[in-house]
User: Which sequence fits this backbone?
């Protein structure tokens, strides 16, 4: 048998949840970033899958969106990591539990 | 699309993803994250989007992973001690996974196999990028430039 | 049926010439296999891939062996001494001896090392290097893996090398390794940009990322004897030189070998490696070299095409190997000639000269194209490059840029 | 060369302007540089004017016009332009030539003045403005230059700003001429309203050409009179002549250049320029506007001549003579002798400049002494000055045959004699001739003859730089007459655009003898009256004027300029002063009260609203804010500042949404 769209979607859902797990359960800021990146990758997988399985897959819309989202994810990662470094310089920690200056 | 390869790659990817989410050593987590992305790229290959797969590897392994690694290095004093994980988040993630899976299985319209399409060549992608997607392309270029400058400014050593 | 299933390796008219000997051999082998065991197509496919891989490994490991001894001999000559000349005739068996030595050496892993990473690094680095070899056309119909966008694949794989190097540096818990890895990554990242951007004009002009297409685009001859290689256009020549230099950096060769400069940091990221792992690193470095030079030949030197139409009868892979080895000889020659540069010099050079120049190449290629690919285009693009070069060299006055280094980050 | 100049007429004024700017940019001490720049600019202007002058000689009726658009509002373009015709050409020549002499003269005269640089900047500025005035082809452009000229004269009269009298004189001159300019401007606007253009010559559409004049129609008279107001102001005609004598407070070269030779001639020039408007619809050369011109001219001429007799200040005498001569020109214009008037203007330019420079040299020699009764016997001390001065005097008093003034005066007398409207002006002018001769003789006798008095003890001849211009101008005053004689009336025909032909018989006209007699009479009378002037006479003290001795009241009357200033002081100025007082009072006691009252009302309202605000509105607002704050405190508790909490909440939301949709489906 060849995998159906369902299967691919479930895979991407699993990937997404893994990312969510990383983002939610870890204390280190970089883990959160990694999780977010993984979620983005899952989203891209969805795009590609929907494009591939859609009946009129001649127009490469999904692929385009995937490409653009990858580019944007790269930018986001760069800025995010820069933020992590800056925060580390300032507070000498990257533990997000201690970074609660915005506490109401 | 050969299902064997698909299964293989899927297993690899998900295992790597879980590892990335749960490994104690940050460095190992990062490396398995890179592995995850390789797997995703392979999935893209299988789905007939070679170009995107290559771009993914290119961007994530070549750039993002290295960036993360650098960051880890620069914030090294803090890396070693990673206090465990909170189970609330884990539970939530699992719940989300369950909900998603349930929803996907529930929707019948996605239970379809891939139609046969002619391979998406890089040429076509390039043409599409340069014709109907040229405006978004410019915007992304601008965004990347802005991100570059912003990151530089953020990490610049404040002069003393 | 088989021939269809074995995609793309078939030339419309399969000539019996020497040129196609390997292709034909492989095909007959596969045919035999399918005839003996009525295996399904995908098995045949896997088999053909395996054949390709083994051929690649064989050829290039041999080449590596030859190269290592040859390098040592040539260096010896350059430094006015005999190279290795004890083992075998003219010391030709030296690599064998080295191999044996490396194999039987003890494999030391530091106690505080991150074992897994330390173990994975050499494998990954070698794998990346070998993968990169897979997309280069070595002769007519002799591209191991024709994937659409092979050039991109090449760079994508090449970019994993950095991660591998970092793993090596991090895994072996040692400051020299770390420093070496940092240096290596720094210069690799800095020079990956020019490497890609200098390939860009070729891709633009050909309109394809497939190496075969790029080679085919350089097939014709002007006036029957001047080959239409891209190196003979102003932008091509410039891009080729820049590409070559960047490749030199990418493969950590002298004069850009600061990541493993013995006199500064013991052996960079390979400090903590010994025995076969070290050999693997060594091999990976050489194979990376082969890959870069091969790509350079493919991109700018017309791939496997013969420089003179009259010499068409000589098989294509011979031509390719000739070009490859010529470039490799230049590598060795440079190593024997030039002193080691400083990290800040390398960085300045990358960001202030090479990068702008490679962008100029892109522009010049565009000019060349829109001025009608003829003599006019030639002159115009030459003008563009000349102007850019003069301006850059004016701005980048060496007195200031290469002044004594200021240690800002090493407190 | 000439071609080029004609194509770039605007260069002629531009050069002196540029020179003045350059000079202004010099530091204070750079006398040589300033002088060099100014003289160079003037010489350049002279050369260019000469080259522009040449082509006008070829064809009678030569006229070169070049117009340009200044700016456009809506679909309507305001166009200015430059014109070169005989009138402009001769004026150019005269201004530049005389101007050059005066520039050179003043390098000597002003030497040692610490504001030397500023002076020359002003001079060049004036010269540029004047040149622009004469070649402008648009009434507006002319008006602009006119005002610039006025400004220059203001600056120069008040040059010695530290003297209150100078400042007062400058103000007086400025304001008085402004009164005339007001009329001028109104006339300009009216003209524009009627004819729609201010260009003089615009190949057929100019306001001086048939089309424009046709559009002007009946309003020509009023327009002409309004413009004439300007002329009256500038060239010191009767009601507004009062500023000119006071203008002598300025340095003597200024008086020579501006208030004798060029600027005051601008009025006459203006009338001559727009003559078609004056003479529109003339019945054998007489229109009501021209009538006004004539009578104003006659009045001015006679009155000024009379006043001149009783003046003691050497420059004031010359000033009044200028006024009377200008009146003479006006008369000649009025009676239709434009050419004659212009001729006299030019001749007058030369010899009056000569006289003023002569007086300047005298003053210089006498160390700033200006009262003629304190001079005397300078004949031996300053021979050059004396001779040149004598020539100027004879030219002014119109001694025939040899002096330019004589011939031009002849011309004017003739045209006046043939004025159809009335013969009175003619007789008045004849009287004026006698008076002119009289006061000039008086002045000469006082200054140069008799024995030296207080002022002239240590007099000395002026340096060469001052005497040479005198000589040049003197020779001009004589040689100029060559082109004036009836035998070969070149200038006349040139100005009247007629071909000239030589006929010796016409040299001697019958009226010549008449004027000869008159002048002789005037001179003789002068000599007889003033032979003992300044010396001790029988029972007459040395410092009293003979006329004063004979006719005290008359003399007092004349000496005080016929009380005209006082008259103005009593009437106009007094009136304006009163009105000022009145409005001041109103302001203080009436408007002020009004304003305060309004203010008080406002205050009242303000207090009222304040109370309302505080009692009423604020209370409610406070309540609201209090509530909001409390709510905010409540909400802020939920913000733990933990990213992951937020993320988790988001995830929960996503989950909820998901389930919701699934449940829907």
Assistant:
């Amino acid at each position: 048998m060849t995998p159906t769209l369902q299967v691919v979607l479930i895979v991407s859902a699993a990937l997404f949840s893994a990312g969510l797990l990383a983002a939610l359960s870890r204390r280190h800021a970089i883990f959160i970033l990694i999780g977010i990146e993984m979620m983005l990758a899952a989203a891209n997988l969805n795009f590609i899958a929907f494009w591939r399985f859609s009946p009129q897959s001649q127009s490469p819309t999904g692929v385009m969106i995937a490409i653009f989202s990858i580019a944007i994810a790269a930018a986001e990662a760069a800025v995010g990591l820069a933020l992590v470094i800056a925060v580390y310089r300032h507070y000498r920690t990257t533990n997000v539990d201690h970074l609660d200056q915005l506490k109401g | 699309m050969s299902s064997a390869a698909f299964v293989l790659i899927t297993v690899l990817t998900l295992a790597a993803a879980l590892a990335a989410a749960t490994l104690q050593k940050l460095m190992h987590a990062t490396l398995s994250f890179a592995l995850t992305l390789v797997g995703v790229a392979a999935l893209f290959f299988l789905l007939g989007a070679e170009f995107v797969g290559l771009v993914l590897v290119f961007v994530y392994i070549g750039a993002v992973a290295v960036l993360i690694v650098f960051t880890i290095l620069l914030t090294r004093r803090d890396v070693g001690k990673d206090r465990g994980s909170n189970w609330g988040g884990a539970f939530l993630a699992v719940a989300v996974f369950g909900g998603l899976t349930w929803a996907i299985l529930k929707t019948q319209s996605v239970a379809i196999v891939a139609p046969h399409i002619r391979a998406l060549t890089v040429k076509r992608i390039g043409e599409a990028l340069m014709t109907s997607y040229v405006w978004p392309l410019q915007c992304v270029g601008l965004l990347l430039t802005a991100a570059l400058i912003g990151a530089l400014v953020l990490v610049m050593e404040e002069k003393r | 049926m088989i021939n269809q299933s074995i995609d793309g390796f078939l030339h419309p008219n399969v000539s019996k010439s020497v040129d196609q000997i390997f292709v034909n051999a492989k095909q007959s082998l596969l045919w035999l296999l399918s005839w003996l065991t009525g295996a399904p197509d995908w098995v045949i496919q896997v088999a053909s891939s395996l054949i390709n891989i083994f051929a690649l490994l064989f050829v290039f490991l041999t080449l590596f062996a030859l190269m290592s001894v040859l390098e040592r001999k040539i260096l010896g000559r350059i430094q006015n001494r005999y190279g290795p000349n004890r083992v075998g005739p003219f010391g030709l068996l030296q690599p064998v001896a080295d191999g044996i030595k490396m194999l039987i050496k003890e494999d030391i892993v530091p106690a505080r090392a991150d074992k897994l990473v330390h173990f994975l690094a050499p494998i990954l680095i070698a794998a990346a290097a070998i993968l990169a070899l897979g997309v280069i056309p070595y002769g007519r119909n002799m591209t191991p893996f024709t994937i659409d966008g092979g050039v991109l694949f090449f760079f994508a794989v090449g970019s994993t090398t950095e991660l591998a190097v970092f793993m090596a540096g991090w895994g072996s818990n040692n400051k020299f390794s770390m420093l070496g890895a940092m240096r290596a990554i720094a210069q690799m990242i800095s020079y990956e940009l020019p490497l890609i951007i200098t390939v860009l004009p070729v891709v633009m002009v050909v309109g394809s990322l497939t190496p075969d297409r790029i080679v085919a685009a350089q097939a014709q001859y002007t006036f029957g004897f001047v080959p239409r290689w891209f190196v003979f256009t102003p932008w091509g020549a410039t891009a080729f030189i820049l590409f070559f230099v960047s490749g030199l950096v990418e493969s950590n060769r002298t004069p850009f070998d600061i990541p493993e400069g013995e006199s500064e940091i013991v052996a960079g990221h390979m400090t903590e490696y010994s025995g076969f792992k070290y050999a693997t690193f060594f091999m990976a470095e050489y194979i990376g070299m082969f890959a870069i030079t091969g790509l350079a030949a493919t991109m700018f030197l017309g791939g496997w095409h013969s420089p003179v139409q009259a010499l068409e009868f000589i098989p294509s892979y011979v031509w390719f190997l000739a070009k490859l080895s010529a470039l490799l000889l230049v590598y060795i020659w440079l190593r024997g000639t030039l002193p080691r540069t400083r990290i800040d010099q390398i960085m300045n050079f990358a960001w202030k000269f090479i990068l702008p120049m490679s962008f100029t190449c892109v522009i010049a290629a565009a000019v060349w194209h829109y001025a009608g690919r003829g003599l006019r285009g030639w002159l115009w693009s030459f003008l563009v490059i000349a102007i850019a070069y003069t301006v850059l060299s004016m701005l980048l006055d060496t007195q200031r840029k290469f002044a004594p280094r200021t240690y800002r980050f090493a407190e | 060369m000439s071609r080029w100049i004609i194509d770039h007429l605007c260069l002629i004024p531009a050069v002196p302007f540029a020179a003045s700017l350059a000079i202004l940019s010099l530091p204070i001490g750079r006398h040589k540089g300033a002088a060099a720049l100014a003289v160079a600019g003037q010489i350049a202007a002279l050369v260019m004017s000469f080259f522009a002058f040449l082509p006008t000689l070829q064809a009678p009726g030569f006229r070169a016009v070049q117009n340009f658009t200044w700016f456009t509002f809506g679909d309507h373009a305001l166009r200015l332009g430059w014109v070169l015709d005989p009138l402009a050409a001769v004026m150019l020549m005269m201004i530049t030539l005389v101007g050059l002499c005066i520039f050179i003269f003043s390098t000597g005269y002003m030497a040692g003045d610490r504001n030397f640089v500023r002076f020359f900047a002003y001079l060049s500025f004036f010269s540029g403005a004047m040149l622009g005035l004469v070649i402008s082809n648009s009434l507006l452009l002319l008006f602009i230059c006119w005002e610039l000229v006025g400004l220059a004269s203001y600056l120069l009269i008040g040059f010695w700003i530290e003297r209150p009298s100078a400042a007062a004189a400058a103000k007086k001159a400025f304001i008085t001429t402004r009164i005339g300019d007001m009329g001028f401007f109104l006339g300009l606007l009216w003209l524009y309203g009627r004819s729609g253009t201010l260009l003089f010559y615009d190949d057929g559409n100019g306001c001086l050409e048939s089309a424009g004049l046709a559009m002007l129609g009946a309003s020509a008279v009023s327009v002409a009179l309004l413009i004439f107001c300007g002329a009256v102001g500038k060239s010191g005609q009767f009601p507004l002549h009062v500023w000119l004598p006071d203008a002598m407070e300025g340095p003597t070269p200024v008086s020579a250049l501006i208030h004798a030779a060029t600027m005051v001639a601008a009025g006459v020039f203006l009338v001559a320029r727009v003559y078609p408007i004056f003479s529109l619809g003339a019945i054998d050369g007489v229109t009501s506007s021209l009538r006004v011109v004539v009578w104003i001219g006659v009045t001015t001429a006679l009155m000024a001549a009379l006043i001149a007799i009783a003046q003691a200040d050497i420059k004031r005498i010359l000033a009044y003579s200028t006024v009377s001569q200008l009146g003479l020109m006006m008369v000649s214009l009025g009676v239709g002798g434009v050419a004659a008037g212009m001729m006299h203007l030019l001749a007058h330019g030369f010899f009056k400049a000569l006289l003023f420079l002569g007086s300047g040299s005298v003053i210089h020699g006498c160390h700033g002494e200006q009262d003629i009764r304190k001079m005397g016997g300078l004949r031996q001390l300053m021979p050059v000055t004396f001779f040149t001065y004598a020539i100027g005097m004879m030219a002014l008093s119109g001694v025939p045959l040899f002096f330019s003034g004589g011939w031009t005066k002849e011309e004017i007398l003739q045209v006046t004699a043939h004025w159809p409207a009335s013969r009175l002006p003619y007789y008045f002018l004849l009287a004026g001739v006698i008076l002119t001769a009289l006061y000039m003789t008086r002045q000469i006798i006082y200054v140069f003859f008799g024995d030296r008095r207080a002022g002239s003890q240590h007099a000395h001849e002026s340096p060469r730089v001052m005497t040479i211009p005198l000589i040049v101008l003197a020779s001009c005053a004589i040689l100029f007459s060559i082109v004036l004689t009836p035998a070969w009336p070149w200038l006349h025909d040139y100005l009247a655009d007629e071909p000239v032909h030589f006929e010796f018989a016409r040299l001697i006209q019958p009226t010549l003898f008449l004027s000869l007699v008159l002048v002789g009479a005037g001179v003789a009378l002068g000599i007889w009256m003033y032979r003992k002037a300044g010396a001790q006479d029988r029972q007459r003290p040395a410092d009293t004027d003979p006329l004063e001795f004979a006719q005290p009241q008359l003399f007092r009357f004349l000496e005080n300029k016929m009380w005209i200033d006082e008259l103005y002081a009593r009437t106009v100025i007094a009136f304006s002063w009163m009105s000022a007082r009145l409005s001041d009072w109103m302001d203080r006691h009436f408007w002020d009260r009004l304003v305060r009252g309004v203010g008080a009302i406002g205050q009242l309202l303000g207090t009222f609203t304040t109370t309302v605000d505080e009692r009423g509105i604020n209370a409610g607002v406070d309540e609201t804010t209090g509530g909001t704050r409390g709510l905010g405190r409540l909400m802020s508790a939920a913000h733990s500042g933990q990213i992951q909490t937020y993320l988790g909440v988001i995830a929960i939301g996503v989950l909820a949404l998901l389930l919701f949709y699934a449940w829907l489906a």
About this structure: DSSP finds three helices and no strands in chain A. Chain A touches chain B through 73 residues (CB under 8 Å). Chain A has a mean pLDDT of 84. Helices of chain A lie at 5-25, 29-53, 61-91.
